[in-house]
Write a sequence for this structure.
């Protein structure tokens, strides 16, 4: 039997698995009242931003009336603050708390600044972003990690900060107004808790037999200790490759990786690895997964093009370096909610309530002028009953949704957009159950629902657009994003609202278009065609039929086959992120969910659906254009009807917006829009011919923080390009040039432009050529992007 729920589950969460973060309010407070989260765990990808978050939270706490009296001894022995983690965020929070007069305790699982201390020996630590000054008392400047850690130790000493090292937080419980924290050594009571535990200290495991043996490690400590030994390294990210390279200086190393190619490693690491393989110092076992680890050896299963071969490799020591993962269990044990974290729910229940709402509307329809589904007394009874169901069922969905039922939110989201768009289809053609009454009942003040729909659309775009402009442009002082959102809002207001709804009619009424055109019904009565000033075929599908005036025919040809290709030549698919109203709603209203865009190979394969829609649009258009010549009336009308319902109503109107909160805003633009597909194909051709002016480049400063990939609304793994310093363009991706990846990159790694342009300064390359230090905590994002299945390396 088909596992419908499982399939839906996978579909809806395909974008979020590697990107989950705790849900926080604007002051970084989690759903557990009084528990704040800062730093890496709260999404600050670099030291400077982690430090800033810590200071901002302390400033917020210092302003709370209930914490006005602080630093005093209490009968219950509670301190004002418990700070968990002594990394950049935790230490800076402690220093700021000290200045603000709070009493506090700092717990640290390992050592002070252990994450940075574990960086490869001699690694240069960048103090990016350059434009943001460091906040707080902790010192930060571009330097080698040894100096940074030494400076932080000195600051801790000079300020008499007591950090309880090697004392992890084990559990946390709310007891009235206080928190009771249990550590490995005792209990602490605190009024507020600041969690600054980062996410690097939780190495991912394989889950295979023997992984707990003494010779198996999940970090690389003291690589110089190993000499003339057989060593197995498992993993395919930078941490694994750098470990293999260092160990191979004195040992024989096998690097086991489950895929056939190392796609997410630095350019320099690739070069060094190729050299080591050529010199026979490292053997790479591609397509291999670990089956079992035994003393002195490891069993690998190697995929040889469909058939599995078992191989036993000698391994005096085995290092499993497949990245770190969010300590989900730990966070959940503290009661913290994660993004896109749903508490079960029932598909059938949500389906029943959604269907009940629509049925309720059907029965209540006669009250608003609709046909009666039942005759006589039953029909009379149906109206109030149907009305009651149509109100109660959605309320139940909201209630369930607030309890974490994802299906209830999906049902509700569907009802909203099905209602709005199902009615907009047109008077008399509304979708069931609104047929015959929906359109007229939503037409107010002498204006049709189509007009109010445009008002609603423009209002949503404006409100959320200004919010997005603040988020990406104003707050980050990023002029590119300010211009982009200005352009999107400008096009929406002028060309998709004022022109079709007002200006066109005025132009006809006051004969601004000349007397002849104003009096020509073929022009004057088709105000809707003014959408075609900016919308090109096939997005504006009706460009050349339904009796257009010659002006529109010529303009349609110029726009579709002249201006759009020219735009693509210079700007790739920027039409989608700077101009288009469909993309505009996604970039504004859909912006808060951008990180949920599906990622990975399956999501990429789904993009081919756009080709199908483009082919359908082309065939339907040709049938319509040639129907008089070849008398293809039936076929043309039928294909037009199907296209209208399937594409114009369901794929543009209802489904994508319903799915915004689950799959990000770009569902239509990415998977179904035929114009986007057409632009992508031409951009690909221009790129391959070397004519395209649209590229994103990367310098060598990437720290694999994943921010770019997380925020790409079309699910591109930007980090993979950045690590390899490869050019990202439309030859290999469906990038729409929104520039958000450039904006969010804390290291200023990415930039638009031609290759010849100088990259922003990169003083010292990231890759440490020196041996890897006492530990290695580089997050291997490739491993992170897919769930680790037991037995896969
Ligand atoms: C390979 C790599 C290179 C990087 N390069 C740079 C760079 O050049 N410049 C830059 O600005 N940033 C860089 N970063 C990012 C930087 O390391 C992080 O932004 C920063 O460390 C985050 O600070 P934090 O305090 O939030 O977390 P962390 O520094 O990770 O500190 C968290 C602390 O909490 C402790 N802890 C965890 N669980 C518990 C518990 N249960 N109880 C008590 N304590 C606990 C941990 O032991 C750790 O000491 C890099 C990251 C990586 C992985
Ligand atoms: S790769 Fe960057 S510019 Fe391209 S769509 Fe994704 S976030 Fe936007
Ligand atoms: S390129 Fe991407 S992964 Fe690399 S530092 Fe910038 S945002 Fe992070």
């Amino acid at each position: 039997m088909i596992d419908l729920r499982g399939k839906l589950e996978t579909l809806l969460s395909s974008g979020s698995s590697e990107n989950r973060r705790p849900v926080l309010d604007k002051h970084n407070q989690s759903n557990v009242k009084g528990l704040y989260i800062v730093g890496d765990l709260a999404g600050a990808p670099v030291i400077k931003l982690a430090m800033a978050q810590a200071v901002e939270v302390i400033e917020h706490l210092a302003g709370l009336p209930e914490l006005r009296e602080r630093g005093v001894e209490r009968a219950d022995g509670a301190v004002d603050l418990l700070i968990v983690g002594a990394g950049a965020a935790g230490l800076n929070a402690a220093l700021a708390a000290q200045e603000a007069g709070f009493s506090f305790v700092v717990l640290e699982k390992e050592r002070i600044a252990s994450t940075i201390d574990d960086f490869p020996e001699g690694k240069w630590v960048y103090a990016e972003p350059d434009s943001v000054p460091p906040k707080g008392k902790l010192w930060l400047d571009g330097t080698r990690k040894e100096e940074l850690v030494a400076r932080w130790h000195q600051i801790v000493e000079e300020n008499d900060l007591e950090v309880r090292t090697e004392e992890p937080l084990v559990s946390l419980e709310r007891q009235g107004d206080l928190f009771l924290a249990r550590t490995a050594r005792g209990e602490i009571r605190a009024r507020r808790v600041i969690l600054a535990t980062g996410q690097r200290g939780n190495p991912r495991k394989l889950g295979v037999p023997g992984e707990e043996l003494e010779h198996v490690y999940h970090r690389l400590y003291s690589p110089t200790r190993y000499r003339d030994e057989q060593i197995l390294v498992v993993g395919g990210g930078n941490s694994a490759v750098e470990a293999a390279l260092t160990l191979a200086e004195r040992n024989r190393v096998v690097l086991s990786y489950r895929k056939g190619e190392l796609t997410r490693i630095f350019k320099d690491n690739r070069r060094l690895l190729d050299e080591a393989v050529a010199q026979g110092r490292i053997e790479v076992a591609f397509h291999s997964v670990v089956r079992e680890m035994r003393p002195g050896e490891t069993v690998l299963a190697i995929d040889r093009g469909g058939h599995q071969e078992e191989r036993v490799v000698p391994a005096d020591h085995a290092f499993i370096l497949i990245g770190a993962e969010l300590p989900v269990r730990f966070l959940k044990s503290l009661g913290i909610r994660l993004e896109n974290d749903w508490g079960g729910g029932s598909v059938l229940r949500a389906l029943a309530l959604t269907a009940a709402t629509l049925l309720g509307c059907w029965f209540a329809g006669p009250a608003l002028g609709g046909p009666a589904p039942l005759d006589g007394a039953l029909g009379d009874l149906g109206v109030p009953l149907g009305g009651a169901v149509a109100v109660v069922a959605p309320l139940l969905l909201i209630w369930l949704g607030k309890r974490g039922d994802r299906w209830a939110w999906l049902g509700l989201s569907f009802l909203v957009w099905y209602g709005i768009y199902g009615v907009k289809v047109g008077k008399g053609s509304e979708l069931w159950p609104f047929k015959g009454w929906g359109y007229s009942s939503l037409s107010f003040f002498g204006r049709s629902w189509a007009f109010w729909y445009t008002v609603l659309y423009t209002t949503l775009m404006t409100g959320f657009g200004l919010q997005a402009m603040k988020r990406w442009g104003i707050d980050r002082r990023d002029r590119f994003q300010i211009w982009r959102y200005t352009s999107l809002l400008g096009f929406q207001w002028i060309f998709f609202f004022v022109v079709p709804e007002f200006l066109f009619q005025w132009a006809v009424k006051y004969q601004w278009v000349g007397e002849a055109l104003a009096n020509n019904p073929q022009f004057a009565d088709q105000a809707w065609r003014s959408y075609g000033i900016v919308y090109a075929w096939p997005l504006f599908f009706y460009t050349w039929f339904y009796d257009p005036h010659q002006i529109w025919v010529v303009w349609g040809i110029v726009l579709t086959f002249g201006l759009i290709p020219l735009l693509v030549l210079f700007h790739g698919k920027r039409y989608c992120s700077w101009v288009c109203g469909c993309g505009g709603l996604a970039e504004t209203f859909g912006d808060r969910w951008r990180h949920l865009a599906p990622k990975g190979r399956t999501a990429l394969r789904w993009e081919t659906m756009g080709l199908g829609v483009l082919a359908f649009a082309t065939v339907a258009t040709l049938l319509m254009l040639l129907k008089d010549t070849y008398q293809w009336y039936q076929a043309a009308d039928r294909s037009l009807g199907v296209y209208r319902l399937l594409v114009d109503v369901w794929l543009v109107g209802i489904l994508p917006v319903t799915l915004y909160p689950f799959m990000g805003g770009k569902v239509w633009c990415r998977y179904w829009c035929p114009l986007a597909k057409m632009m992508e194909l031409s951009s690909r051709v221009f790129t391959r011919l070397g004519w395209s002016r649209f590229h994103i480049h990367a310098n060598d400063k990437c720290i694999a923080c994943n921010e770019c990939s997380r925020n790409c609304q079309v699910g591109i793994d930007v980090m993979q390009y950045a690590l390899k310093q490869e050019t990202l363009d439309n030859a290999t991706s469906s990038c729409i040039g929104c520039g958000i990846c450039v904006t969010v990159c804390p290291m200023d790694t990415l930039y638009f432009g031609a290759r010849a342009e100088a990259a922003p300064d990169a003083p010292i390359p990231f890759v440490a050529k020196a041996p890897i230090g006492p530990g290695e905590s580089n997050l291997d994002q490739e491993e992170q992007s897919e769930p680790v299945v037991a037995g896969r390396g």
Summary: The pocket of flavin-adenine dinucleotide (ligand 1) is lined by residues 39-40, 45-48, 50, 84-90, 107-110, 114-116, 125-126, 128, 168-169, 196-198, 200-201, 703, 777-779 (CB under 6 Å). The chain has 28 helices and 19 strands. The longest strand covers residues 187-195. The two ends are 31 Å apart (CA to CA).
